[in-house]
Write a structure and sequence with these properties.
Layout lengths: L2 H8 L2 H22 L13 H21 L2 H6 L1 H18 L10 E3 L2 E3 L2 H16 L13 H15 L5 H5 L4 H7 L4 H19 L12 H21 L5 H27 L7 H23 L2 H27 L2 H10 L11 H12 L11 H4 L11 H33 L4 H25 L17 H19 L1 H4 L1
Antiparallel strand pairs: 1-2
Amino acid sequence: MSRNDSIIRNIDWMTIGFYLLLVAFGWMNVCGASVTYEQSSLFDLSMRSGKQLLWIGISLLAGIFLLSIDWKLYDMFAYVAYGFWVLVLLATPFLAHDTQGSMSWISFGSIKLQPAEFAKCLTALAVAKYMSRYEFKVRGLKDFIVPFVLIGVPMLIIMVPQKETGSALVFAAFLLAFYREGMTGYILLIAAVAVFFFIFVIRLGVVPLPLGTGSWGMVISMLLILVIELFFMLTRFNTRGDAGKYFRMSAMIISGVVVLTYVVCMIVGIWVAIPYEWVSTGLVLLTLPFLIYSALRWRNRDLLILLVFVTFSVAYCYSCDFAFKKILQPHQRARIELLLGLKDDPSGVGYNVKQAQIAIGSGRLLGKGFLQGTQTKLQFVPEQATDFIFCTVGEEWGFVGSSLVLIVYLIFILRLIYLAERQKDKFSMIYGYCVASIFFFHLAINVGMVLGLLPVIGIPLPFFSYGGSSLLGFTVLLFIFLNLDASRVKKM
C-alpha cells in the first residue's frame, strides 16, 4: 500500500468534515460582511468574497500537500523551521509597511502575508519536539524553562518590534498544553489572580473609601492576598499533627489581628484620617517574617513559594497603575477603560463594540437571512469581515445560527483533544494539544471581544475572518496534525 493510500485510509474524515463546514460557512459570512449593493457577483476576484474563495482553494491545496509529506520530517526539521521563522519574524519590521500601527505585514505585490500567523504552528512543532524527548521528565517548574523560552521568543518579537499585541497574546494558549503535560496548576492560578488584581487596582482604584484616605482597589487587593495566604496554610497543612495545630492557631491569630487593626483604625479615623492602603499593605508585609520562620521550622518548601508569591503580589499590585498609565499604548488603555466601565465612549474607541452588539441583537432568533444584514450592508461595524466577523453571524443567522456555530466549534475542538489523546507518540500528542489550545484561545477571545466581554485586541476567528494569512495559517496548523494522526498506525 502506497503512503498516499495509507493517509487516505487513516485520515480522520470527521475533522476534515468540520473543517470544510467551518470554511464554507465562514466564506458565506465574509460575503455577508463585505458584499455591497453594487457588487454583482460573489465570485469577483477583485472583491473580498472572491479573494477569500481563492485563498480557500490555496489552503486546500496546501492541506493536501501537507498530508503527502512523511510525518517524520515534521519531527526532524522542527527546530530548523522554528529557527528560520524566528529570523523571518525579526526581519518583518524592516520589510513591513505600517498597517494601523502594526509592522507585521509583508507585501508581495498585491498579496500581503502576516508571518506571525505561521509562527504558532512552527512554535508548536518546536515545543512538541523538545517535550517529546526521552530524557524530558516533569519534576518541577524548571523543566518548563526551555518550552517557555520557545514560546517567549516569537511572542516578544511579535509584541515589541512588530507591535502586534493580539497575535502575541495567542502564545499564552500554550500554557493549556503545558498544563496537560504536567505543569503545575499554580501557574494558571497565578495568571488568573494577576488578572483579578489588575482589575481591582485599576477599576476600584478610582473609588474612594468612605473613611480615611485611599481607594478600594488596593485595600481589596491586599485583603485578597491575605485570604489566599490563610487559605493555603489551612488546606496545605490540614492535619491532626503539630503542624496542623500550629497553622490553624496561626491563621486564627492573623485573622484576629487583621480584624482588630481595622476596628481600631475605624475608631481612630473619627478624629484622624487613616491611610488604609498603607495599613492593609503593612498587615500583609507583617506576615512575611512569620512565613520565613515557619518555613525554617517545618522545613517546608511550599511556604517559601508562598513567601515569594506574597512578596511579588504586593509589588505587582503597586506596579499595575504605573504599567497601565506609562507602559500601555493610549488605544490599549482606552479599550481597557471602556471594558471596565471607566469610560463611556460610544463614538470613539467603543464604537466597534457598540455597533457589533447592535448588529448581533438585530438578528434576534433566526436572523435576517444571507446577505440581508442592514448593519452589515451599511458598513456600521469597522473591520466586520475580519476581527468582528461574528457579528455578521449574529445579524444574518440570529441566535440559533450563532449557537450552532459555537456548538460546531466546540465539537471540533473536542475532536482535536480526542485525536491528541489517541496518539502513539509524545510528539504528536503534544502537538495536538497545542493545536486544540490555539483554536480554543482564538475562539474564546474573538467571541468575547465581539460581545464586549473582553478588550478588543485584534484576534481573528478561525476559518471565518477574512484574510489569506489567517486561513492558510490555521489550515497548516490543522493539517500537519491530521498527517501525524493518520500516520499513528505506522508508529506502533
